[in-house]
Amino acid sequence: MISALFSINTTNRNRPARQHKTLARERGENFPIANRSMETTELSHLPEGCVAHIVSLTTPRDACRFTNVSALFRSAADSDAVWDAFLPPDLHAIVARSDAETQKQLAAVHPRKQLFMRLADSPILIDGGHKSFFLEKSSGKKCFMISAREMTIVWGDTPTYWKWTSLPESRFAEVAKLRNVCWLEMSARIETSLLSSKTTYTSHLVFKLKANSNGFDNIPVETSVGINGGVKDSKRIFLAPYDRLLQIVPRPMRFSSFGRRLRRARPAAEETAEGSSSGGARDAHLYPKHRADGWMEAELGECFLDGDDGGELEVSVKEVERGHWKRGLVIQGIEFRPKA
Question: 154 or 13: which carries more pLDDT confidence?
């Protein structure tokens, strides 16, 4: 009985499969498969304008790679139609905020790919030289740096605490040199309409530490990033590079009057690192890194812009709790660029 039921069930399960195969054979005889007689269309047979449109829907990095495919793709990928699509739609309005000489130089740059590369490799100064603008090369997203003079620095106009001077390696006419303060607080803001929408931006303090700097080794600063006063990201970071912290000579162990060895407090760097979600004292987001232009940068936080935020993106850096005197910090500005 069981074997009979099993036989019936097996037959019922297999019957649709046999019927499907039969129908497929019949359809194959009556309706030949199209791709058996259809010739394959190659991309090389497409018009150059069509290829250019396809490439314009990718990224600048992809467009550069397409130039190695064929002569047709090279011509299409280098066309003005492609690179016009990669340039920001408000480029003319941004360039209009630069000086007359810069506008004249950019107007003479052709073709459009060369203009894109010029803006990616060489930032231009806008708003009276207090901001710089450039393009992120791989995506074409807009990037800006706010100069130290455009930032809000507490006690920044007091010569006893801060000194304004020029450095040949700075893109701005002035940088801020910290002479001596125990209350370190600074901030910067930028209109969200200037930045690329649907993009996560990271902000970076661009600075240097002089050889005789003091008050930054093993002492974190607090940062916050937000829109219109709201905080979307905050953390504690260090302005002294990690390799410099390793060179700090630990203080000798102290003993109490009763001969007991006192417990030495752990460095703030270790405490902050353990409190980080990434973990580990070598967390790259906790310590500054060296830039190709000779400066250092410290990541202050990130914020996603959906295009409907409005208002201003605000960033702040401060160390006001410990009361340590600090000196030797040189600030060029705060940079906003798409998250890598």
Answer: 154
